[in-house]
Amino acid sequence: MMIGKRSLYALCFVTCLMLLSCNDDYNEFCTQYQVSFSCDITNVPYNAVNSMGQFITIRKKTGSTSCTVYNPALKKTTEVPLSEVEMRSFTLGLGGLIVGQPYFSDGKSSVYAYDLACPACDRASARLTIDAMGNAECPKCGNIYDLNNGGLVTTGDGRPLYRYRVTQSSVSTLYIHN
């Protein structure tokens, strides 16, 4: 039985559509949750991101006039006051931010920013806890992510952490954005 050209083209087209629709790929950078944050990495507590393998978390409670910054290496939480402009303009993704410099870099950026919410749970309330070794664990689903290796899942399953773009506009200022 011979297949006509039209039938062959239609078969190829349908096959391509099926292959594309079954693709589990994801974007390298998250765009579904709005992020706009900047900080001076020469000042405490943000200066921890200058050391390889060190990460901090940054959260802002609704209606708060400050950011809560946690450094797991020092086991220290710091409240950083925000100006009126910062309170109105800073958005920190779904659950907050994890910012730091991994041991393994993609060569494009030395500082990475991830969402503090677990991507498997995909809720603001499913905030990860991070340790001084560069692991982030979800208390709800138990997934563990490697911050030093692109936010990949090391225990559990699912996609890597949501990642945001980081631009260093000067020696000391980081801008985290979509």
- Please give the CATH class: Mainly Beta
Helix content estimate: 10-25%
Low-confidence stretches: 14-24
The CATH topology label is Rieske Iron-sulfur Protein
Instruction: Give the N-terminus to C-terminus distance in angstroms.
Output: 54 Å
Number of strands: 13
Give the number of domains: 1
Indicate the CATH architecture: 3-layer Sandwich
Report the portion of residues in β strands. Answer: 25-35%
Strand order of the largest sheet: 4-3-2-6-7-12-13-1-5
The major beta sheet can be summarized as: 9 strands, antiparallel
Supply database-style keywords.
178 residues, 4-stranded antiparallel sheet, 13% helix, 9-stranded antiparallel sheet, Rieske Iron-sulfur Protein, 2 helices, 33% strand, mainly beta, 13 strands
Write the layout of secondary structure elements.
Blueprint: H1 5-21, E1 35-40, E2 54-59, E3 66-71, E4 76-81, H2 84-89, E5 91-92, E6 97-101, E7 112-115, E8 129-130, E9 135-137, E10 144-146, E11 152-155, E12 163-168, E13 173-177
Antiparallel strand pairs: 1-5, 1-13, 2-3, 2-6, 3-4, 6-7, 7-12, 8-9, 9-10, 10-11, 12-13
